[in-house]
Amino acid sequence: MLSPESKVKVQGAGRFLSNMVMPNIGAFIAWGLISALFIPSGWIPNEQLAELSGPMITYLLPLLIGYSGGRLIAGERGAVVGAVITMGLIAGSDIPMLMGAMIAGPFGGLAIKHFDAAVAGRIKSGFEMLVNNFSAGIIGMLGAILALYFIGPVLTVVSAMLSSGVEVLIQSDTLALVAIIVEPAKIIFLNNAINHGIFSPLGISQVQEAGQSIFFLIESNPGPGLGVLLAYAVTSKGREQQTAAGATIIHLFGGIQEVYFPYVLMKPRLLLAVIAGGITGIYVLTLFDAGLISPASPGSIIAILLMTAQSSLVGVVLSIAASTLVSFLVATLLLRHEIRRDELKSESNESLVGGSATIQLERGVMSQALKITPQHVCLNIEATSKEEVISILGQKLVDLGHVEPEYVDGMLKREALLSTYLGESIALPHGMIGGKQNINQNGIVFGQIPKGIVWGSEPNDVAQIVVAIAAKGDSHIQMISSISTALDDDSVLERLKTTVDANDVVRVFNGS
Description:
Low-confidence stretches: 345-369
Shape: flat
CATH class of one domain: Alpha Beta
Mean pLDDT: 81
Helix content: 55-70%
Number of helices: 20
CATH topology of one domain: Mannitol-specific EII, Chain A
Number of strands: 7
CATH superfamily of one domain: Mannitol-specific EII, Chain A
Structural class: alpha/beta
Strand content: 5-15%
Order of helices and strands: HHHHHHHHHHHHHHHEEEHHEEEEHHH
Distance between the termini: 42 Å
Strand order of the largest sheet: 3-6-7-5-4
CATH architecture of one domain: 3-Layer(aba) Sandwich
């Protein structure tokens, strides 16, 4: 298993890969629709229109990914250099270079970023445009040559090795066992790294050879998660049943798989259900030789069916149905067994097993051990960056004796690695997993930023409520869940954004 720090790094890499691919998903869909409709095995074969498919997968998609990767690192200059280097990969290979573009784009961005840092303040006035344009051109040219002669051939060999390995798995009827790795990895939010970093490049290569690919549906199959959500909807009661039913619709038709992850995290034994469903789905796809023509993103049933080859329609539908059924049956058995076993414990849900928990999950408020005071509240913060906000709240944690100063440095590093923006104008900054030794006692500090400050990866990800967290052991998961629940009421959230009385915050978090 991955260590906690390694898991965070892989999650960060997965998000980075996703940020390269997702802005261009419209181009993938366009290519997929053209292929699904107009290639000889498509729904409406058209020889002339089918000619669009080849250039799009060979040139357009890799260049877009390389451009986006460079832009993530160094803005527009990085984007241009990344695209030029990606062109070197394309010219030196006869296979779609999506995987290579995910390397070449960021590489170009890093190269121009380091160059700009090295010459900063050294360019004479009036020569900026000349230096900027020629530096991008020269670095792009050198990178393209390097990609043509070295990076491209290496990636071609790697791709061939991966394809051969996949072929062995398919021929030995063991491909379905990949679900044993994929399904647990999805639950800890490594789905982007798996899908965009591994399966999409393999799938594109397979489409070039066979016209469709099973790899586009290994990770994105909604069946395993759908089965778990349906099991919750059948076996649970009250609010949990209602939320599971709502999550089912979002998951199936919206394609947002992350909605079922918390349900499995709450009861880890349900991993058996999603693994069983995943194995079943892959086996059915293999049995019917079915697959998709293009990545289906988001992974909704609508997008999946649109990306399904005509000859694979039955296999894909049966794969989703079978994986849903198996996951549902296994999850239902596990949940009902747990309900029977835990009936006597239902009244003590506020006290978690092990004695280390300090969060009362049932009502979403702080336990007696974590009652906050007005000293834990910072109102009307004025700051110019999220790093400044983290420093202010982190210092408050230090002053209150919850953490050592080193923990604040870890909070800043954690934020640089992966945004802690939760959505709904809320951010929950916390330290690195390896920095828990710098925590003296569990605690939180509430921060209010009425004017808001950009916190997430998008311009609209503006935080007005920031709760800095210090939690020992694994209690941070329960703490985050409790805080999220406490702020779930829109009217409460709006009041906390503008209140001038720290006691308003105290009452919300202490449940009084």
